[in-house]
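Anyone? Bumping this.
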Amino acid sequence: MLEPFSLLPPNASRSIDMEDGDILFRQDQPTSGLYRVVTGCVTLQRSSLNGDKLTLHRAIADGLFAEASIFSDKYHCDAVCTVPGRVLKISKADVISTMRTNPGFSEGFTRLLAVQVQRYRAHIEMLAIGSAKERVIAAVQAGYFDATVTELATRINLTHESCYRAFKDLCEDGRMIRTGRGRYQLTT
Amino acid sequence: MLEPFSLLPPNASRSIDMEDGDILFRQDQPTSGLYRVVTGCVTLQRSSLNGDKLTLHRAIADGLFAEASIFSDKYHCDAVCTVPGRVLKISKADVISTMRTNPGFSEGFTRLLAVQVQRYRAHIEMLAIGSAKERVIAAVQAGYFDATVTELATRINLTHESCYRAFKDLCEDGRMIRTGRGRYQLTT
DNA sequence: AACATCATATGATCCAAATCATAAAACTTT
DNA sequence: AAAGTTTTATGATTTGGATCATATGATGTT
């Protein structure tokens, strides 16, 4: 995918190192930009009236967050660093002005969001699959199994134990084959 | 939310009645537009090499689908009617030309997608909540409980039985109150 | 080289949600 | 008014995934 943010002026983004617990923005603060995670993790959360926190998103490497801030006066949640690392802050003013002057950027940004919508929908359908085995199959078909079994498991709301067992059972069923330690692939 | 599609020329969309099993488009067909469901349900699915189908999305009343077709030459999945009803087909050519000539439309469309991304992320985090009771609480806080308990249950991947029991337990815990038959609301 | 950490892997046990069953109230439809 | 359907509701039972425990190979650090 073409990266629309490369079309922004060179000084539109700023690198920010973050420590555990650092707050990038708070709910109701005026919006100043969107972010891209380079390393680490940022958790977006909203505090309810009584005090308990609702996690809205956890952004990890290469993930954008607060895209909607471009269209809003205030951030609608808090952004807290939960794994130390680095983020790129992308200036709202620059995004807006570039959107108005550069149709390529505007279209690229819109496409990027459209593709994300597509992926999230597919992901939500995958999470609706009741059986661990079938969910693992769907996830592998969707190309989710690019790294470790543990990471795959977390992504599809399974424990790593259940995920290993699903792989094992699927191999016994002949629907997958073990190609090495922690390596499984679909048959057919 | 402002409805960007109201900015399209009057003849940009076309109403289509659909019966169960009707196919609105097939994978690899050239893209001609995106759709809005008026009534009924359209399932987007991709057929894998062996033959079994992977559901990517089920669009219901007021839901848009195939937004990414605007940026793609071919549909990347099949769209099949699974509950009879009616859809509005929105012409790709008109969307593209309006995006290029009307900044308000372009911005509105982008915002619409950004808000959807936001919602889907929050939804995915909600589905990661292990306990039925906590998931129900999060769903109610997010404003999901606007209709029936059964509908809420389906949205958050619970059976209606488990959802009723969660409500009951939460009332016993004093975290919710029953305000009538099938009516529950948060305390605090 | 020694040590720590992480991913892989599987066995044993537990438990919460699914499933199955039933029923009454509410609401459609005929 | 009767019949059918949907929603609400809860009890009994089952089961699949979570949890807990353990171990080994791989990787990374001092």
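Late reply, but here is one note on the structure posted above: Chain A has two domains: 4-125, 129-186.
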